Amino acid sequence: MIHHARYTGLLDRYRDRLPLSDDTRLISLGEGATPLIRLQNLPKKLGRKVEIYAKYEGLNPTGSFKDRGMTMAVTKAVEEGSKAIICASTGNTSAAAAAYAARAGITAFVIIPDGKIAMGKLAQAMMYGAKIMQIRGNFDDGMRLVKEVANHAPVAIVNSVNPYRLQGQKTAAFEIIEELGRAPDYHCLPVGNAGNITAHWIGYCEYIASPDDHVTGACDFGDGKSPYAGGSITGKRPKMLGYQATGSAPFMRGEMIDNPETVATAIRIGHPQSWDRAWKVVEESGGWFAEVSDEEILAAQRLLTQHEGVFCEPASAASLAGLINDLNAGKIEDGSSIVLTLTGNGLKDPDTAIGQCNGEMPGVEKATMVTVDADLESVRNAITGFMD
Ligand code: F0G
Question: Which fold has domain 66-162?
Answer without folding.
Answer: Rossmann fold (3.40.50)
